[in-house]
Specification:
alpha+beta, about 230 residues, binds copper (II) ion, 14 strands, 1 helix, 4-stranded mixed β-sheet, 5-stranded mixed β-sheet
Length: about 230
Amino acid sequence: MDTNNNSSDIQKTPNAKTIGIILAAVILVVLAVVLIVNSQKNKQENPNDPNTYQSGEVEPGTEVEPGLEGEELPEKVESTITTETGQIIPEGSHVDVPGANPIKGDGVVTSVGEVVQNDAEPMAPEAPQQTEALDKESLPESVIKLGVSAAGFSPSSFEVKAGAPVSLAVSSTDDFTHVFLFDDPSLSAVALGLGPQETRAITFNAPSQAGEYFFHCDVPGHAARGETGKMIVK
Ligand SMILES: [Cu+2]
């Protein structure tokens, strides 16, 4: 009998040990899970923590505080609108001709709202942009329209108001390529390259200085045969 009791005691002891080990393991697993859940919660609660910050987007309506001087500022985000033709322009501006520069207030600006530079490299982002080829019949009344052919510019002069926005369209009226260009380097970016029978337009700020600004066709030989004219700034 004793031996039987003893043998059952011997069997019980290892069972209790095993249960203890399992319990300890379970507690460790629960602790680990609690730690992981806590660290996840921390990430969600502190999105500004540089270690957990993931999105570079600024929520609409969030005001971006200007940084201290010398600190790199986030790129200025200008509010934009989209025109009927799908052109993205600064809010509060409009275009005279689709594809030309927007006019905001009383000045011509770039697509990001900066004042356009008449003396920039032609086609540089800060330069007034020539439009794609367009239908000259679709141009509004307010646009100044010139034709150019081997016979010269027609009309060969036009008037603008000093400092005011000007939309100018030039058409090739023969079967040749022509290039509209001002003589004065201060207007080097106000240029149009035209294929045969093509019309393109450009919107720019007239010079603030009154006077006569001569232009010509820059295709070799064309100015010499009379493709010249002048813009009168008043
Ligand atoms: Cu020409």
